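*** Residues and shapes ***
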Amino acid sequence: MVEAAYGPWVPIVGRRPFPMQDDYAARIAAGQAWVLEDAGAIAGLVVIEREADHLLLDNIAIDPARQGRGDGRALLDFVEAEARRLGLAEVRLYTNLLMERNIALYARRGYAETGRRQEQGFARVFMAKSLSGCAARAPR
């Protein structure tokens, strides 16, 4: 599914986006990968990493055949709820500078740009969303 979701970005970015190179077996083993299922089929996935003061949304992918059905919103809702459950007051993410559609989507969801820089050969846009009503507490 990640191959299908990110494949259209290859000609735009000029190479395979980083999520296409990730080790999902390791992500699953670390408890960082979550899937959205519909009738027993994977509709989408997120990879999240818990940090001391925030939750990092490392990757979100939706089955291209299901795009536009609200699955991305459902996964973003899950990520934000998971941050709150963990007592974290912020979700951070990054995306490729050339993925303008994604940047606009995150902005509509309340994510604000916090910076731009080159990392691992990719031009990245960093964004964050403060989660109101969540008192941060020390991680366990």
